[in-house]
């Protein structure tokens, strides 16, 4: 299968580091002209040097996804300069851990504002451009927390469930204009958001034990999905939440399979 995204224009939020950085680079490598947005200007500058070596027309801008006026101005400028917007990846997100009775309102508001309202504001600004062109791809960062919340992370899980629901609702609204809307549920991908790479070995093993594939994911695993969802080959997929979590949600106790595998030694094959 040949994915042809050459010449398309994509806006990626939270592009400065982690998964968003890899999504932006992967799209650029597929010939997409990217508009990278993030709060962090240093990360953006570093990224843009790499991206512009691949696609010189690429743009980047410091942008807070909670800033409706700033978003409109950047989206309108990008559309005018680059001839439209084909793809929007709402990847920016924040997390905050606390039990409900210890959670402060500021943290709750920040998480809902960035993860949910930010997604809404970006879509609101981009959709008129996609409607005019009669096509578009919107791809939103959810999480497996949208389906199964983690203890101590309820504000984040609630926000991601809202993103998943928003994705379905919006898919229904914009279907007639040939705009698809999907969400991705990454996990577990070590980034600066979750600090998985810095955990002690026993804690790492505990987390990996919850996965059917028992290994960390990579940002490239998500970027590959984004490239596919952006392509013509994915034109009949909309309103979905796609889980890229090494089978986090597949089985109840994945270690039961590993116990059997290990019973046969290193190769996991019955010598008989
Ligand atoms: N890493 C994982 O395993 C995992 C799992 C589930 C979901 N996710 C989701 O995937 C997305 C990317 O996660 P990541 O691990 O790369 O996180 P990350 O923290 O490494 O990157 C998030 C990026 O978003 C930017 N950002 C934060 N607030 C912003 C704002 N108000 N406006 C603009 N940009 C803002 C940050 O500056 C940062 O560059 C997030 O939405 C996250 O919730 C990640």
UniProtKB/TrEMBL annotation:
Domain (Ketoreductase): residue spans on this chain: 8-187
Annotated signal peptide: none
Entries under NCBIfam families matching the protein: PRK07231.1 (NF005559), PRK12826.1-2 (NF009466)
Keyword ATP-binding annotated: no
Highest taxon listed in the record's lineage: Bacteria
Family from the record: Belongs to the short-chain dehydrogenases/reductases (SDR) family.
Pfam families reported in the protein's UniProt record: adh_short
Keywords: Oxidoreductase
Gene3D superfamilies: NAD(P)-binding Rossmann-like Domain
The keyword Lipoprotein is assigned to this record: no
GO molecular function list: oxidoreductase activity, acting on the CH-OH group of donors, NAD or NADP as acceptor
Organism of origin: Paramicrobacterium humi
Native organism taxonomy: Bacteria, Bacillati, Actinomycetota, Actinomycetes, Micrococcales
Designated name of the protein: 3-oxoacyl-[acyl-carrier protein] reductase
InterPro entries: KR_dom, NAD(P)-bd_dom_sf, Sc_DH/Rdtase_CS, SDR_fam
